[in-house]
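Summary for the funding panel

The consortium committed to producing paired sequence-structure records for every protein in the target list. Below we show the first two records in order, beginning with the earlier of the two.
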Amino acid sequence: MKILVLNCGSSSIKYKLYNMDDESVLAQGGVERIGLDEAFLKLTLPNGEKKTLMHDMPDHKEGVNFVFQTLLSKEYGAIKSLDEIDAVGHRIVQGGDLFEKSCIVTKEVEDGIESLCDLAPVHNAGHLKGIRAVDHLMPTVPQVTVFDNAFHSTMPDYAYLYAVPYEIYEKYHVRRYGFHGTSHRYVSHRLAELLGKDIKDLKIITCHIGNGASVAAIKDGKVMDTSMGLTPLAGVMMGSRSGDIDASAVTYIMEKLGKKPQEMADYLNKESGVLGISGISSDMRDVENAANEGNERAKLALKMYFYRIKKYIGAYAAAMGGVDAIAFTAGVGENQIDMRKESCEGLEFLGIKIDDAKNNTRGKEAEISTDDSKVKVWVVPTDEEIVIARDTMNLVLNK
């Protein structure tokens, strides 16, 4: 069975084609700059070589169409006919409280995703364009939606509600939803496998640390709490997002800078975080290099970044009444050695001890805690796409 996984953004489409017989990746790549000049598709060949193909893509329909053309091409193709694709799985950022699990796409599902666009206007609109492009180009092929917040739907109400008048939740669905759920789901289940234990017997903290970052508390296989909120802005400090901030500080800054609501949202999402403090970059590699060269603001940005991750680890250990294992994942979590060390530094009272030699690893599964550490700490590379592919296959086969 061949499954195509699509992750459609406002001007981009990432894709992976799987042979689910052995879960091998037959093709992968991404489209950028849809609706803009110099749009292109960058693909990864089986030998790891990357190729960039320029192509005019005024909309998502043409973007998806060009993905299909590339999959079929004599030079770069992985299939001979679109009939070989048995189903398409989509990542959907915001399912609100309408969708608590993956589902096969219907008109009602599309309408539900569209009704949630106010909560994630850029993301959900892009996802819908991708779904409708496939509808048009491959009308008989089943599609499945996998929601980024669905794994977090097990949070109790006392964890996901904000302390604002209750009717705000009832009327406008304002609550903590959390994101990166597909990643937290994959990593927590994979960590349980690595430990040789049933996830229902574990208290796990998963740290998805990339340019966007979130932490989740997972007890007995269910999410108790997660750091992102109504939007992906909340929680730990991120590459260009502020993370948690006093709401009155937001209105104060708006008054001082004369910013409108959307301008302020952009300020906190795109100009803050590590970028805002360091003044250098949202890329942790650039900031780390600057800090090593003596840049004081880069050093401060790193200290703030590590400190906030550590605070969430401690808070979630308290929320669950302890912790058995911690996993670091995503671009920074899998590759930045200092981040993992500093985020766990001082947590020995919880039974967390990092082995510096074991921690000297990047991008692969590895235990990084000492042999006598009561809490096992691991690096677990995430794989959101295979979760989407598995859900898609299971739903289609059991339809």
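The next record, for a separate protein in the list, is shown here:
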Amino acid sequence: MAEKANLSVIPSVDSVLAEPGIRAMYEFCDQALVARFVREEIDAARQSALSDGTVVESKDSLVERITRRVCLRVARLTEPGLKRVVNATGIVLHTNLGRAPLADAAARAVAGIASGYSNLEADLEFGRRGSRTALVEELLCVLTGAEAAAVVNNNAAAVLLTLNTLCLGREALVSRGELIEIGDSFRIPDIMERSGAVLVEIGTTNRTHLRDYEAALTDRTGLMLAVHPSNYKVMGFTASVSLPELVALGHRRGVAVVHDLGGGALVDMGEFGLPHEPLVSDSVAAGADVVTFSADKVLGGPQAGILVGNADAVRKIRRNPLMRALRSGKLTYAALAATLRLFLNRKDLLRTHPALRMLTEPVSALKRRGRRGRGGRGGVGPPAGGGGGGGLGGGTG
């Protein structure tokens, strides 16, 4: 028969609150909050005693354990959860490590805007309400050749909003070879379903032809979606339809074409000796109605999703009620505008753009830095389950 629980060793709340270690926590938290944590720990000890039938520790050791647990809880709450780390993974744009580090100019822009008021939606020239998109639209149009632009909180949101605006209740044609899965098991078909678009799969995994799209076009078709498979390659016996071919078909049949680039480069990466990445300007020049891409990958800015394209399509997207739910805030706009301005002076990009600088750094420099850092702070390796997406990173997120 189990021994009766010895509840006499359970301390009172007041006695624990009198402990020097607990009193020291008042510097970091309200006394009432510390008292709440103490009560919760005492209740947990009491419930444990009742369920186990015995309390094997002394009152002093129980008070010490409660004090230690309360202090740890206060520390967890009051210390920043988001910390700077050393990226020793070999992946410059690592999703789990926050993707692109901001340029100095972008960090200064965020700091300058964060502590005061700003003209986020105020037209200072005419003294009336303005549009936050106007803060970056001209920059995006100059750099991509697009007629109009919009910004949301990530590229998955950009795809969702575009589909919901242009294809709600209608069919969206997508090649089976482009039905990608991005980080944390999010998939293009799932995003499409939530958008209200009806997915129509075209072709096969390895071969899709223009005739496959032509055969699938009906009066229910809302758009054709091309997705850049930035995280993988299908090799061997393959066939795919180029964006210009898809756009030409769309124009003939009156169907919009959307290109989800994922990464979205603004400059030719080959100029820096890097592997080819599709240019946003090429997709715009090819005639895609809307092009979506991330701001925090090769662009090197803050987390955001960017939409560029023809004025009519982008205007419809900006008027969608979901735009308010998915829009970005002032700090994102400050960092994004500062990052975009770097691309106006391409000759200095390797000096001003941290991600490009790291991607082009010679191996010898990395080895020297590794030797200097050996024995210092530890690096962070790829966590279980991945999350890096290769040297550049990729995906729709």
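Regarding this second record: The first strand starts at residue 122 and ends at 123. Confidence is low (pLDDT under 50) at residues 378-395.
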